Amino acid sequence: MGSTTSSSLPADFEWGFATAAYQIEGAAEVGGRGKSIWDTFCHLEPSRTKGANGDIACDHYHRYEEDFGLLSQYGAKSYRFSLSWSRIIPQGGRNDAISEDGISFYNRLIDSLLARGITPWVTLYHWDLPQGLHDRYGGWLDVEESQKDFERYARLCFERFGDRVKNWITLNEPWIVSIFGYATGINAPGRSSINKMSIEGNTATEPWIVGKSLILSHARAVAAYNKDFRSSQGGKIGISLNGDYYEPWDSSDERDRAAAERRMEFHIGWFANPIFLAKDYPADMYDQLGERLPKFSESEFALLREAEVDFYGMNYYTSQYARHRTQSPSVHDFVGNVDELEENKEGLSIGEESGVHWLRSSPDSFRKHLARIYHRYRKPIYITENGCPCPGEDKMTRDESVNDTYRIRYFEDHINAISQAITQDSAIISGYFAWSLLDNLEWSDGYGVRFGVTYTDYDTLERTPKRSALALKSMFEGRMNGRM
Ligand code: PNW
């Protein structure tokens, strides 16, 4: 990768850093904030998050000015963050009270960013469902109730913040919400019938119901924006989907090529077909899941058609190889009956190992992924997350961690892949957010796995920029220098 002639980016390319509320804010009980399912999950005994919780996290709630000072220092044009639903509506529901304290906290964040010339990108939902809704009707397990409550929450955010916020992301990674929350149970609310730590759940059915709730909740929020806010506020709205790229384990075997495609349909097509194409779930999913996949009614398809988005938010970290299986899938399978491997038939690794077991650096596959997604779903792509922990970073001292050459190379290689997808594959890619502005609560991995471009000392909460923070600025400025 990396020939200089092909590494330019459009002059108006947006770039910056991303975070999520529960991972950084802390101040869990300040201003009447209600609990979310992550507050509950992080306080279960025995711990399912390596003893970690977000009670304090990075204490961003009290230190946001300092953190935005870092954004300014790093040269960021944009910043992606999420709103804590239960800080704004503590019990979460459409007839529940609004917290003006919560609203004014986010007003302060938005105003501070704008005063610094940084464009806010706001995610409405990054996994922290109000516990009140989970208790009231099972949260995302209730398709009818959850979409009505999400629409009301979204409308409130458009009303209160939409005069200044022009870039909205409805949901972050509905695949992770459904599968990690309701199939494997490793994320909140931790439901599963295959995880020994879970006391409730049904892996065979619940993730598919939750997926439908998320799709329709997203659609209701977008339809509301299109109908009642777009013309007066003039913003953009989309969703952030995760999903790895899959290469066939044996590229000469037609069944492995089909397995790789099928795996991506289970990861991305599940959400992208209804959301970007107003189409039914992929046929591969119906073939395997049958009646367990909850259908869309005619009126739901009509809603999907009204919910046209402006962009595809892509969270991309890694790629894998897919190998077909010859036995039939169990009812607990959610990957499309494939083996997922880090090496292909020839023993070639998909990429260099990072500091977390599930992530290897695969920029060439990223380029294929960008081209595939753009040409299938036909919306401008914003990379809403991309990043990594360096090998061994969980055990490093601060002085070792800030010298993050692996991360710099990872960013460089992935940004080159973006410019190649633009210049050589005709993909429209309009922005990039590095994950993450600072080391933070890495969900069930706790505080050990560090994705930040800023080192967080969790004893003192002191922040120290890593070398990658400033390296990104020169990567973007060099590439946007009118060379395209
Ligand atoms: C994303 N995987 O989650 C989330 O949006 C972030 O909040 C998170 O901190 C970041 O990626 C880094 O993990 C993912 O196992 C978690 O493939 C796990 C996976 C993918 C994305």
From TrEMBL:
It comes from the Eukaryota. It catalyses: Hydrolysis of terminal, non-reducing beta-D-glucosyl residues with release of beta-D-glucose. It is an enzyme of class 3 (hydrolase). Keywords: Glycosidase, Hydrolase. One of its GO terms (biological process) is cellulose catabolic process. The keyword Ribosomal protein does not apply. The keyword Metal-binding does not apply. Its EC number is 3.2.1.21. SUPFAM superfamilies: (Trans)glycosidases (SSF51445). One of its GO terms (molecular function) is cellobiose glucosidase activity. Plays an important role in cellulose degradation. Shows hydrolytic activity against several glycosidic compounds. PANTHER family: GLYCOSYL HYDROLASE, LP05116P. Belongs to the glycosyl hydrolase 1 family. This is beta-glucosidase. It comes from Coniochaeta ligniaria NRRL 30616.
